[in-house]
Amino acid sequence: MNRLVALLQLLRPRQWVKNGFVLVGLVFGHAWRVPATVEAALVATAAFCLASSAVYAFNDAQDALQDRGHPEKRRRPVARGAVSPAEANAVSAVLGIASILLAMLASAAAAWIVAAYIGLSHAYSQWLKRVPVLDVVIIAAGFMLRLLAGTLGIGIAPSVWLMACGFLLTLFLGFAKRRAEIAQLAEAAGRHRAVLERYSLAFLDRATIVSAVGMSLAYAAYSLAPETARLHGTGGLAWTVPWVLLGAGRYLYRLHRQGGGGDPTEELLRDPVLALSVAGWMATVFWLIG
Question: What is the pTM of this model?
């Protein structure tokens, strides 16, 4: 039983919520009433869940030594010795292959996008995570591939606005994560993640603010654009902007005043105001365009 629990922890199923990015295209592309498209989107989402778990298992095998000295990561299965690095690599390989095969059921394009995500994630783990700014851009690119899987991968034309807002949002979350890591680990930060030695709190503070403001302005511009009103049959999407501002502001508050910001999933689970902002935004969007 303990063995099964450790293997399940290796997959980090709580992080699968991030793969909800795949489903965004269904809503903003008005495709939720087409059963075949919904089915393809759900298959693509499941494929990304397997792919992301494959990446987590691979990273845990690679980073086990550093993770053992981390206050939180030392509890991960490979770091604490519940799963060996070889076993984690084997699980990663199986899940990676399974994710591509599953994505094929959605479309060949979805399979290529999942494969690109796995390849990009491996390049990040091996080399790109050591390059300041590029490391965060690569993380954001992984989320852009999720958006593409839920649009281009299932026959929906990807929106430039959707991609821009999503990219700026994930940049914001990525820089916030780096800022939270430095604040938590202090002088030991570089030993756990080498790139942190090349960042400063001042730079990351500016980067989070710039990306948060950019994301908010891009979303506001999208909600007010005439073509948006024509597409969705309503000019009321501007009413969703306050939810976006509440979410961004609350995340910054968690980052600077409560020692949060390290993991968006954990922040959603821990902070009711942040959860309310996301739920309120989703409910308002569905009410307006559903």
Answer: 0.90
Q: Are 90 and 118 in contact (CB under 8 A)?
A: no
Look up residue 231 and give its two tokens: 């597409």
Q: Where are the domains of the chain?
A: 159-290
d(CA 81, CA 234): 55
DSSP string covering 147-215: HHHTTGGGT-PPPHHHHHHHHHHHHHHHHHHHHHHHHHHGGGHHHH-GGGGG--HHHHHHHHHHHHHHH
- pLDDT means over runs of 10, the chain (290 residues): 80 91 90 92 97 94 78 80 88 96 96 97 90 94 95 90 92 92 72 79 94 95 90 89 96 88 84 94 90
Cα-Cα-Cα-Cα torsion 208, 159, 246, 174, nearest 10 degrees, comes to -30
pLDDT of residue 45: 97
Cα 195 to Cα 75, 97, 105, 199, 261: the distances in Å are 22, 30, 38, 7, 18
224: which 2 tokens?
Answer: 């007010």
8 A C-beta contact, residue 269 and residue 242: no
The pLDDT score that the predictor gives to residue 75 is 82
Q: Are 234 and 289 within 8 A, CB to CB?
A: yes
CA distances from 260 to 51, 253, 268 (A): 27, 8, 11
Interatomic CA distance for residues 185 and 272, integer angstroms:
26
Provide the pLDDT for residue 77: 84
Quick one: pLDDT at residue 190? 57
* CA nearest to 200, candidates 21, 128, 208, 220: 208
